[in-house]
Design brief:
The complex is a heterotrimer. By secondary structure, chain B is α/β, with parallel strands linked by helices. In chain B, 30% of the residues lie in helices and 28% in strands. By secondary structure, chain C is α/β, with parallel strands linked by helices. Chain C has a ten-stranded mixed beta sheet, with helices on one face. In chain C, strands 3, 4, 6, 7, 9, 11, 13, 15, 17 and 19 form a ten-stranded mixed beta sheet that branches. Chain C is globular and about 70 Å long. Classes of the chains: A alpha/beta, B alpha/beta, C alpha/beta.
Chain lengths: 249, 484, 440
């Protein structure tokens, strides 16, 4: 599904990713953990194609294509979804309207017929239950006036509707209280299947109590310095990151 | 072609044209360029006006002569030679029209296509000779009957002068005095036609009135005059303009619109202006210098202006409200879009005179490429306007590093119980918003459109549904390729 | 030539004008001669009519020096403020009351007249190089009469802890005087200092102060500038502060206007290099028939510059206040942040406020905002206080004070802040009661 080789990336001239390797197969859930400033969010943004993240070296293959050559929207059409760490507010643009435009853009790319308003509404109604999304949030402007938890839930809701092949969740758990965290985790779990891959970028082990990853990676200094199974996360929780850094050094 | 009250079929309409003679008579079709008392007398004579109106015109003209060209603070305007303009150009006869759609500028047709305008209408808008069989005639006729049943008068200004002289005489120039400003004075002297509306006491106008029908039928020319009177406790909603760009050779448009709302009356006036803006190098285009003003003359009256301004090379207009009666309400909702070398200087004046008067101003400006745009507004709270309230929100969106957005709000407050709030912001579309939309699979251009329309939403929601949809499309067309 | 300016021309003839600066004075006078006094047709003077100044035959020649007692002057200094003092009486430097020596190393403070004689080479590069005589006839008039004022120069890397307090005292006897104080503040690279300009009028004195201050801030220089205007209620005051700011420099301007019959303050910051920042705070309190006009302008000439402006007004009696704040973002000056706010409290039905916050933007990557409000005291707060047994009059005064204090509290220098708070309280009814409510 996704294959990252020796990825180097800079933000504002400063090298953040320094030779990162990662391979994700269909149906797998990967957790990428690491201390603040290790490059976790940069990785998420590079994969989604954000301007200002300059890849200086390395390759990223996604579904057999060179991901780095694609524009952000082309990546989205190809089934890549980023749940943002800080979802932006867009005043005046209705949440549902954005989603409908997004869904139909993807469908058009896939050569499927665009959904009309009735079909789309039916789809929304079905998915809303998954993340316990309140209806009134849907009709507001995108993320405007949403609480932190509501914004994150909205991200998962969008994900459930767009049904991506590869979802990258950038610190979707941070700032959530335990109830909101459970809702988000349930949402994610319900979307897991053998065709869909998920990358959880997180700082805290807590999320992994609710979503079981197949692989856990530790990102530090712009590289993955250790990989393991889900028990690695527990070990990190107990001992922190320093022991790995020492081990590697 | 003028539309008169009792025109029932097309044949009548065509015959009428000949009846009036001068429409096709080369000698009288267009008055030679130049402005003098003789020109004005000629216009008045052609229109068979009463003496008082000619006197009124001449008085305006004599005052105009003493006035200086406005001192443009933020606009670059080539000097206008007022003697080079022809002040009477009657509705185009077939001879002036293009023979077929092939003669129309293909760019214009492309735009029509994007706006989804039917071919028939495209031809009319572009000034192609269409034999008088267009739909709007029959539509116009049926709705005229419906209006007549309600007692509503809706006709051309010339017709009103003939049929309802008392009303015209009473209200003409009572909101915008003939000597109000340079262009209003010029208009008062030489105006050729326009719309007239009277809603009787207690009547809620049964439908939205629109110049759309009338403009298709008759080219009202460059000095338009509109007068709308809403008598006590009446309601009217008026739509001006159309969303398609008009092919028009006239450089200068100096229109005047006067609204009078008596006690408990409400007038809603919406404009979508999309005159020819000139090409991408700033060559050509309309100078749109308009004086629009509403007078809430009686208590509890309400006047609401909504405008979407996307066209013209230069727009200069400040639809205003005089809140004379107690508890009167004035509103101004505006979206102005300027692209390429367009310039717009627009805004409003809210003059609070009565007690408990309220006004709301929402202005959204979008500038792209080399365009310059200014919001210029005045909120004036007079000494006796106890508890007056105003809220102003004025936001500018910038697209491209060569454009400009300027905000000049004047607030004059003389009453200690008044509350006036003005807020303004200027920014460009944020990279984050764009990236967010693109990550959700929306193309950059569509994302920009979406964000821009979101930015304008507060204003669009004031427009009638179909108008709002067309206005949104229009924004997309106007800003096409502005970013990238 | 304009009318009503003849006596300025004849006073100019009596001026000692035989130094190296004489040509500059003459050409400034020519500018003034050409323009005359501004009129209301000029957008910049739309709301302020200066005809009262024009009509009165103010003399710019000080023939009869007045003396003031030391204790009289001491009462006008900032209590508890350890500072360097320069005292001017009726526009003339009063060395005996000033407190300059010993000067710290790297700091030069002189009366302009002495500086003109001593530091020709330095002054030739700075004096009248920042203020544009064509920007206002009053500035031209000031330049024509340059003689007295403060010249302050801080060398690079020098941090002056003690504020410099320039006291302009007016106490006229005999014919009404016009004074033209001219200050020049040069802050070197990485240098820091604080300058206070205090304008105080005695009793009901009738005079005209026409002041101009030029400031230039080199790279990373920091200047805190206070202007505290307490002219007599019969006085006319026109003041103009122009600052040119280099890379990463920082100007903090506080302008407090309490006195004067007719007052106009202009403050103009030119952010001429990346990283330059300006903060402009202002408070005006007017009563009776006072007319106070504050005009500010910020030019963002280069990218990555920022400005923050906050002006507040409290208007009582038949007074009138004008605020005009202009922010210009020039072409190619990207990554700008500019925020401006003007809030006004109308306490009397005969008072008038005319406010006009302006944005003029010729770049696109900007975050600019401005706001202006006119209103009265919050009824809910008022009710709350009254329900807590505070009488209406006191409650009003208290809330009015709180409105002003939001600005005053941002003043870093304790003694100045404290004195201003007392001055403001003093202008409110129920002053003694209010003092009990406020902490200091």
């Amino acid at each position: 599904m996704l294959n990252i080789q020796n990825l180097h990336a800079k933000i504002g001239g400063k090298e953040i990713l320094k030779g990162l390797n990662l391979s994700v197969n269909a149906g797998e859930v990967h957790a990428i953990m690491g201390p603040n400033g290790s490059g976790k969010s940069t990785l998420a943004n590079v994969l989604a194609g954000r301007d200002g993240c300059d890849v200086s070296k390395g390759t990223v293959t996604y579904d057999g294509q060179d991901l780095l050559k694609l524009t952000p929207e082309e990546r989205a059409w190809a089934g890549l979804f980023l749940a943002f760490q800080y979802p932006v507010e867009i005043p005046g643009v209705n949440n549902v309207y954005l989603l409908k435009a997004a869904v139909n853009a993807v469908r058009k790319y896939r050569g499927e017929a665009e959904l009309d308003a009735v079909e789309f509404l039916a789809l929304i109604k079905k998915k809303m239950k998954i993340v316990k999304m309140q209806e009134e949030l849907l009709n507001r402007s995108v993320n405007e006036g949403f609480s932190g938890g509501e914004k994150k839930r909205n991200e998962i809701f969008q994900m459930s509707i767009l049904e991506p092949k590869l979802a990258i969740l950038d610190e979707t758990d941070s700032g959530l209280d335990i109830d909101a965290l459970k809702i988000v985790a349930e949402g994610v779990n319900s979307l897991c299947n053998e065709a869909r891959s998920i990358i959880l970028v997180t700082h805290y082990q807590r999320l992994l109590d609710y979503i079981k990853p197949d692989h856990v990676h530790v990102l530090s200094g712009g590289k993955i310095i250790k990989s393991g199974g889900s028990d690695l996360a527990l070990e990190l929780e107990k001992k922190g990151y320093d022991w790995i850094k020492e081990e590697v050094a | 072609m003028t539309m008169t009250n009792h025109t029932d079929n097309v044949a009548d309409l065509v015959r009428k044209e000949y009846e009036h003679g001068f429409f096709t008579d080369i000698e009288t079709d267009t008055v030679a360029p130049g402005l003098s008392e003789a020109t004005i007398a000629l216009i008045s004579k052609k229109k068979e006006e009463p003496t008082w109106l000619l006197e009124w015109r001449l008085k305006a003209y004599r005052h105009w002569l003493t006035m200086a060209d406005p001192n443009w603070t933020q606009l670059n305007i080539d000097p206008i030679d007022y003697q080079a303009i022809s002040y009477y150009s009657a509705p185009k006869s077939k001879d002036d029209k293009l023979k077929s759609i092939d003669e129309v500028d293909p760019k214009l047709l492309e735009t029509y296509e994007k706006l989804g305008i039917p071919l028939q209408e495209q031809m009319i808008l572009a000034g192609v000779a269409v034999d008088a069989v267009f739909d709007s005639v029959s539509v116009a006729t049926t709705f005229k009957e419906k209006l007549a049943d309600a007692g509503v008068i809706f006709c051309s200004f010339s017709e009103a002068v003939k049929e309802h002289p008392a009303l015209v005489k009473k209200y003409l120039g009572s909101v915008v005095p003939a000597a109000d400003n340079f262009f209003a004075a010029l208009n008062s002297a030489v105006f050729t036609d326009g719309s007239f509306v009277y809603i009787p006491k207690g009547v809620r106008c049964p439908m939205e009135l629109s110049t759309y029908f009338r403009i298709n039928a008759s080219n009202t020319g460059q000095f338009e005059r509109t007068l709308i009177i809403a008598d006590e406790a009446s309601h009217v909603s008026y739509l001006e303009g159309c969303t398609a760009p008009m092919r028009d050779e006239n450089q200068l448009h100096a229109a005047v619109v006067e609204l009078v709302a008596l006690t408990d009356a409400q007038i809603k006036y919406a404009t979508v202006q999309n005159w020819y803006p000139g090409d991408e190098n700033g060559v050509g285009g309309i100078y749109n210098f308009v004086t629009k003003r509403g007078d809430c003359r009686g208590d509890n009256a309400k006047i609401s202006w909504t405008q979407v301004e996307t066209g013209s090379a230069i727009t200069w207009k400040y639809p205003s409200c005089i809140l004379k009666g107690d508890n009167t309400v004035g509103e101004f909702y505006s979206v102005a879009v300027t692209n390429n070398y367009q310039q717009a200087d627009t805004g409003t004046k809210m003059i609070h005179i009565g007690k408990n008067t309220r006004s709301t101003i929402i202005s959204k400006g979008i500038s792209a490429r080399h365009a310059q745009q200014s919001y210029r507004g005045l909120v004036k709270i007079s000494k006796n306007a106890d508890n007056a309230r105003n809220h102003t929100q004025c936001d500018s969106l910038l697209m491209g590093d060569q454009c400009g957005a300027h905000t000049f709000p004047y607030i004059e407050a003389k009453n200690s119980t008044a509350t006036v709030e003005h807020e303004a912001t200027t920014a460009k579309i944020s990279e984050e918003q764009l990236f967010y939309c693109r990550q959700r699979g929306i193309k950059e251009e569509d994302a920009i459109n979406m964000i821009v329309n979101g930015f304008c939403r507060e204003v669009f929601k004031e427009l009638p549904m179909e108008f709002a949809v067309e206005a949104q499309k229009l924004l997309g067309v106007t800003l096409e390729g502005a970013v990238g | 030539m304009s009318t009503g300016i003849e006596h300025y021309l004849s006073d100019f003839e009596q001026l000692e004008n035989d130094d190296w600066f004489s040509e500059n004075r003459q050409s400034a006078l020519d500018v003034f001669k050409e323009s005359g006094f501004p009129n209301a047709r000029l957008e910049d003077w739309k709301y302020t009519d200066v005809r009262p100044i024009k009509k009165k035959k103010f003399s710019s020649v000080n023939k009869t020096p007045v003396s003031m007692r030391a204790d009289e002057i001491d009462a006008l200094r900032f209590q508890g403020l350890d500072c360097i003092d320069l005292v001017f009486i009726n526009g003339v430097f009063a060395k005996e009351y000033s407190n300059i020596e010993p000067l710290e190393e790297g700091l030069i403070i002189e009366n302009m007249q002495d500086a003109l004689a001593k530091d020709k080479d330095f002054l030739a590069n700075h004096l009248a190089k920042y203020a544009d005589d064509n920007s206002s006839p009053f500035t031209a008039l000031n330049t024509a009469f340059i003689q007295n004022g403060a010249f302050i120069n801080v060398s690079p890397d020098v941090v002056i802890e003690k504020p410099v307090n320039i006291l302009y005292l007016s106490k006229t006897n005999g014919s009404p005087l016009a004074t033209h104080p001219r200050n020049l503040i040069v802050v070197g690279e990485n240098a820091e200092m604080t300058v206070i300009e205090s304008y105080i009028g005695h009793g009901q004195a009738n005079y005209f102060t026409n002041a101009v201050t030029e400031a230039t801030l080199s790279a990373n220089a920091h200047l805190k500038h206070y202007k505290i205007q307490q002219e007599s209620l019969n006085a006319y005051h026109i003041g103009n502060l122009i600052a040119l700011q280099s890379r990463d420099s920082n100007l903090e301007s506080h302008s407090i206007s309490l006195g004067g019959a007719l007052v106009r303050n202009d403050i103009h910051g030119k952010l001429a290099a990346e990283g330059a920042q300006i903060v402009m705070n202002g408070l005006y309190m007017t009563d009776n028939k006072q007319h106070v006009d504050n005009h500010t302008r910020v030019d963002h000439l280069k990218p990555h510059t920022s400005s923050t402006e906050n002006y507040r007004g409290i208007l009582n009696g038949k007074s009138r206040a004008v605020f005009n704040g202009k922010v210009v973002v020039h072409k190619n000056a990207q990554k700008i942040e500019a925020h401006q706010n003007n809030a006004n409290l109308l306490l009397s039905n005969d008072a008038e406020i005319d406010t006009k916050p302006e944005l003029e933007i010729y770049a696109d990557d900007v975050k600019c905002s401005h706001g202006a409000t006119v209103g009265q005291l919050d009824q809910k707060m008022l009710f709350y206080l009254r329900s807590r047994a505070i009488d209406e009059q006191t409650a009003r005064s208290l809330l009015t004070y709180a409105f002003a204090d939001e600005l005053i509290s941002s003043i870093g220098l304790g003694p100045i802040r404290h004195q201003l708070e007392q001055l403001i309280i003093g202008q409110l009814p129920e002053a003694t009661l209010i003092r009990e409510f406020t902490h200091e």
